[in-house]
């Protein structure tokens, strides 16, 4: 499922964008997916995808890419831990 298809699964909102996110490893294999408001009204697509990684082997994250239908936020207006800081904790060096 593509990020665009995931964005279409978002519950409706008059105050937020509908976003989909897909994480792929270095070999371009999908390892996680998520969409806005998937688990609660304030969850971002990237947060949903990252949360599903669980205890994945950190070596598999090396060279991975997260694709999103909207640029990652740099301000956590709906929560304190926004996507870039959550991502760097998971091993995505581009945001550390």
What does this structure look like?
By secondary structure, the protein is an alpha+beta fold. It is built from four helices and three strands, in the order H-E-E-H-H-E-H. It has helices spanning 3-7, 45-51, 58-61, 83-90, and strands spanning 20-24, 30-35, 65-68. Strands 2-1-3 form a three-stranded antiparallel sheet. A hairpin with a 5-residue loop joins strand 1 and strand 2 (30-35). The N and C termini lie far apart (28 Å). The model is unreliable at 88-96 (pLDDT under 50).
Instruction: Tell me roughly what share of residues is in helical segments.
Output: 25-40%
End-to-end distance, in Å?
A: 28 Å
List the helices and strands in order. Answer: HEEHHEH
Rg estimate, integer Å: 13 Å
Largest sheet: 3 strands, antiparallel
Amount of beta strand: 15-25%
In the sheet with the most strands, the strands line up as 2-1-3
What is the helix tally? Answer: 4
């Amino acid at each position: 499922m593509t990020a665009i298809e995931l964005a279409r699964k978002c519950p409706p909102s008059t105050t937020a964008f509908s976003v989909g996110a897909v994480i792929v490893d270095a070999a371009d294999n999908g390892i996680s997916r998520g969409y806005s408001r998937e688990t609660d009204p304030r969850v971002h697509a990237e947060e949903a995808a990252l949360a599903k990684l669980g205890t994945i082997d950190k070596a598999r994250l090396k060279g991975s890419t997260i694709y999103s239908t909207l640029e990652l936020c740099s301000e956590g207006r709906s929560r304190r831990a926004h996507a870039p800081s959550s991502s760097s904790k998971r091993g995505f060096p581009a945001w550390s």
